[in-house]
């Protein structure tokens, strides 16, 4: 698309023109120092994706890649009106909420013999079948079920038409370039086109397309088809959890007016100026944290097993948000109901 800024360019432009969201330099450094202590630990490496998360596939084969594809095709909008009443999915003795409830539901379906990760199935799956696959153990269903059904049909049909029904074929058309794969995803699959306007410019965050590239890199353990030479060009994923944890850690600040609005639980529509500022400043904030962390590591002479990139920082901060839900209760996340994040 002509004149469309990349996610990194978009984030920089938004951060430079933001009125209600601010990056705090001291907070950025404190987050970098928090991460420095973890730099040589088990979390900040590609293997953590499997080691730390029991629902993620163990394998690095075609089926695992197609699991990632259907998960990230549905990886959006899990928040509920009231946090105490939400969709929950019980699976193999544990109960999962939010993003993990999606993974649990998909794994439960596979255990039940429902081929939910096969394009030939979800290209024509019915709404009732999707309701069954994503069913909640509470009376609160997973949000946007109808949209999830529409997107499954749309995406499945395209995967069959263009990539013989397997996302691995799409990966193999990317010449092991993360950026080529990112562009192939947004050109081929409409629901991944996370683009909007800000101050008269066309901007992109591509949250689900970027996390799809990242999760493909992770499930393939950064090897073989997943050995993307430019994986570090992928930025963090502009969702609704990262801004919350960045505010909690003091790296991001909201104006009083915006904070008041979020504390009241007011919805922000997709593409609204304040919603764009939250997403853009969060993305740019993580880029600054990464730069600061790499600087600190150089000074300290810290060596790590692989390159620290924005994906690994994002994964760590997202997991941190999950593990510190109680501590973060006073910090509101922004409520946007959409299919993009
Ligand atoms: N920025 C960022 N956003 C992420 C993820 C993930 C899942 N990735 C994990 C899976 C394997 C890896 O090890 C990652 O740890 C989901 N989301 C987004 O969060 C929101 C759901 O939040 P909650 O309601 O609390 O479950 C929703 O917008 C969803 O799209 C991430 O990693 N980064």
Automatic annotation (TrEMBL):
Keywords: Hydrolase
Enzyme class: hydrolase
EC number: 3.2.2.-
Catalytic activity: queuosine 5'-phosphate + H2O = queuine + D-ribose 5-phosphate
Keyword Hydrolase found: yes
Entry's Gene Ontology molecular function annotations: hydrolase activity
Gene Ontology biological-process annotations: nucleoside salvage; tRNA modification
Source species, domain of life: Eukaryota
Similarity section: Belongs to the QNG1 protein family.
Protein name: Queuosine 5'-phosphate N-glycosylase/hydrolase
Organism: Equus caballus (Horse)
Lineage per the UniProt record: Eukaryota, Metazoa, Chordata, Craniata, Vertebrata
């Amino acid at each position: 698309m002509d004149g469309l800024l990349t996610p990194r360019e978009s984030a920089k432009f938004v951060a430079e023109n933001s009125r209600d969201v601010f990056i705090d330099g001291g907070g950025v450094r404190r987050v970098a120092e928090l991460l420095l202590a973890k730099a040589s630990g088990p979390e900040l490496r590609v293997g953590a994706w499997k080691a730390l998360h029991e629902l993620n596939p163990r394998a690095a084969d075609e089926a695992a890649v197609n699991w990632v594809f259907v998960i990230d095709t549905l990886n959006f909008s899990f928040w509920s009106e009231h946090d105490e009443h939400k969709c929950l999915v019980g699976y193999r003795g544990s109960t999962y909420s939010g993003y993990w409830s999606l993974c649990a539901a998909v794994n439960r379906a596979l255990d039940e013999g429902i081929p939910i990760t096969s394009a030939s199935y979800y290209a024509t799956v019915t709404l009732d079948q999707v309701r069954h696959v994503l069913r909640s153990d509470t009376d609160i269903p997973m949000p946007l079920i109808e949209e999830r059904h529409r997107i499954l049909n749309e995406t499945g049909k395209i995967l069959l038409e263009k990539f013989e029904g397997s996302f691995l074929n799409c990966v193999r058309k990317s010449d092991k370039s993360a950026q080529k794969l990112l562009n192939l995803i947004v050109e081929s699959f409409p629901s991944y086109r996370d683009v909007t306007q800000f101050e008269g410019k066309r901007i992109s965050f591509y949250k689900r397309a970027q996390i799809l590239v990242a999760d493909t890199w992770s499930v393939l353990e950064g090897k073989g088809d997943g050995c993307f030479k430019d994986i570090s060009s992928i930025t963090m994923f502009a969702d609704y959890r990262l801004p919350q944890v960045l505010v909690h850690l003091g790296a991001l600040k909201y104006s009083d007016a915006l904070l008041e609005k979020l504390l009241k639980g007011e919805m922000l529509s997709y593409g609204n100026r304040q919603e764009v500022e939250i997403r853009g400043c969060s993305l740019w904030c993580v880029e600054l944290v990464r730069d600061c962390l790499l600087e600190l590591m150089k000074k300290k002479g810290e060596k790590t097993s692989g390159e620290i990139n924005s994906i690994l920082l994002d994964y760590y901060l997202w997991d941190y948000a999950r593990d510190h839900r109680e501590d973060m209760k006073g910090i509101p996340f922004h409520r946007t109901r959409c299919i993009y994040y």
